[in-house]
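cron nightly-structures :: item 1 of 1
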Amino acid sequence: MKKEFALLFFLLAFHLLPAQESLIPGQEKEIGIIFENGLLAGHPNGVYSAAFSSHLVFSWPIDQRIQIGGGSGAEIIGKTFIPLFADVRLIPFRTKPLFLYGKAGYALCLNSHYDAQENGNSDYIVYPDYYYPNSYYHQPHPFSNDFTTQGGLLIESGIGVLLQAKKLKMGLSIGYRYQQTEDRTVNLEHPKTYQNYFHRLALRISFWF
């Protein structure tokens, strides 16, 4: 039902919203800025089913339809991650406010260290649901007094509509987010690394300057 609603929303926006002469910000200057906030929606039974995501993108227009750039921000999925990524935006139709976007980069974990004794658990760690819902990895794992979390590869792409009111441009987008992370600890007296992969639905509202 959610997919059908999202598709209907973008089809209506594509046909009904008024045409614009210039939709890509930054055509009159060298650098454009995109500030966006939203949610990374995941498994409904997960601990962090609606993780917060905030990005700031600096973009350079190539022509009237394409802009490239890079950005960073903050995302909270249990721990705080700092994404660093390249960004590409495409407006395929000159007279319709539809845009496509893609991001690729790496997410750094800020609070990567976990001390079991400080958190009242010196023997086991239970991985949260957003890693592996209802799987073996949600069971307790014996480990040493602490472990560290590392960030990993991120890829995101999606589609959106761009609304304009006077000088303000606002975007609404929906996309797919792929993220890798890594947990390192000592399991049964041996170093152990757990690779984590998760898939998210990225829902964002953005402001283009």
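cron nightly-structures :: done
The radius of gyration is 20 Å.
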